Amino acid sequence: MIRLMKWRTQLITLVLYCLSVLACLPALVVAQQQSFTDWLVELRAEALADGISEATLTAALDDLEPVDRVLELDRSQPEFVQTFTRYTNLRISQQQIDRGRELMREHAGLLAEVQRRYGVQPHYLVSFWALESNFGRATGGFTVVSALATLAYDPRRADFFRQELLTALRIIDAGHIPADRMTGSWAGAMGQLQFMPSTFRRYAVDGDNDGRIDIWNSLPDVFYSAANFLSQSGWRGDERWGREVVLPAGFDFALSGTSIRKTLTEWRELGITQVDGTALPRVDNMEGSIVIPAGASGPAFLVYNNYRTTLVWNRSMFYAISVGHLADRLVGGAPIQNMPANEQALSRDNVLELQGLLNSRGFDAGPVDGILGGQTRTAIRDYQRQSGIPQDGYASFALLETLRN
């Protein structure tokens, strides 16, 4: 009977996954009705009508071809879901901390100048710089126009990337960077900040006052642009991002997540302390949320407004915690104290199975796509609540085994 139930579950998961793939087929069929050459002619006409010069279009679009590698990367799916432990270990090392401290000293005058204007503390700016491009050493090896044109021609997210491509052409036309030097990631994220063209156009700043904005080579432009983005997104220069905390025994994990906000007084009354056992600071008008990136058995963080602002830059919980924690380490903060000892990664097939099992039991995990997004985590919480287990929303092997049985 158990083997029959497991076979039935796997069949349901496979069917749901196939249906999600088939839903994309009409768009793929439409895409084949227009050649890349014809598509490029239309794009060029639109760009000309938008006021972009013929000289810029010639430099950027002549001899342009789709880049197969871009599509490969866009379609690729990781074999395993990255754990919090692995994510932070890859990005926060003693070598990174030492290098970041050295660069903070080297550019102290510039960073102080930026802080006076925008209110963003130097250690946070250097931390963003580290995570985005390894202090400018890893900015991506693709020509942005070619990458964006490839993704704009592809039907999957054509409208979004078409607008990004047109914006990139406007940036070139304004004289900020030549087309052949506008390099970035396979998805079009540019320079030392990995700004998309739309983000560049809205927030990038000419920090060195040379008449153009160069987030590829000019550190004043890099730091001014990053600080302007954060400032306009709500950064508070007199607050920290958050801190690691200790949760009391019997903590109600339904109170975790950024949708729940409480004052520090309220969290103190619930028994939450700093990681060293001392009481939380008495800043009673300051609100925070509890986030648990590795589930109930991993570290817990009380996060504030600047954590939420970091999510405007990149919506990943892992990213936002890593930026904040690296910033702390740059100014002498301690390592994370309660990292899980053996955090095991789920494979993509495991996630597909998990989503299928949740859906088959009436918990709406969304499309069976192998991606642990917000809808899947909400479904996990709903299942945990009904089953009387801690509502941490965490996808683990133990949870998968419970669903199987």
Which characteristics define this entry?
mainly alpha; disordered N terminus; two-stranded antiparallel sheet; Helicase, Ruva Protein, domain 3; 405 residues
Contiguous helical run count = 19
The neighbouring-strand order within the major sheet is 4-6-7-3-5
What portion of the residues fall into strands of 2 or more residues? 5-15%
Mean pLDDT: 92
Silhouette: globular
Please identify the structural class as seen in this structure: mainly alpha
Order of helices and strands: HHHHHHHHHEHHEHHEEHEEEHHHHH
Low-confidence sequence ranges = 1-7, 11-32
CATH superfamily of the domain at 37-76 and 139-232: Bacterial muramidase
Rg calc: 24 Å
Give the total of beta strands: 7
Helix content: 40-55%
Here the CATH topology of the domain at 37-76 and 139-232 equals Helicase, Ruva Protein, domain 3
Q: Please identify, by name, the CATH architecture of the domain at 37-76 and 139-232.
A: Orthogonal Bundle
Return the CATH class of the domain at 37-76 and 139-232. Mainly Alpha
Distance between the termini: 11 Å
Largest sheet: 5 strands, antiparallel
Summarize the structure.
The protein has 19 helices and seven strands. The chain is mostly helical and 405 residues long. Among the domains are: 134 residues, Helicase, Ruva Protein, domain 3 (Orthogonal Bundle), CATH 1.10.8.350; 57 residues, no CATH class.
Structure description:
This protein has 405 residues and is mainly alpha-helical. Among the domains are: 134 residues, Bacterial muramidase (Helicase, Ruva Protein, domain 3, Orthogonal Bundle); 57 residues, no CATH class. It is built from 19 helices and 7 strands. The strands form 2 sheets. A 5-stranded antiparallel beta sheet has the order 4-6-7-3-5. A two-stranded antiparallel sheet has the order 1-2. It is globular.
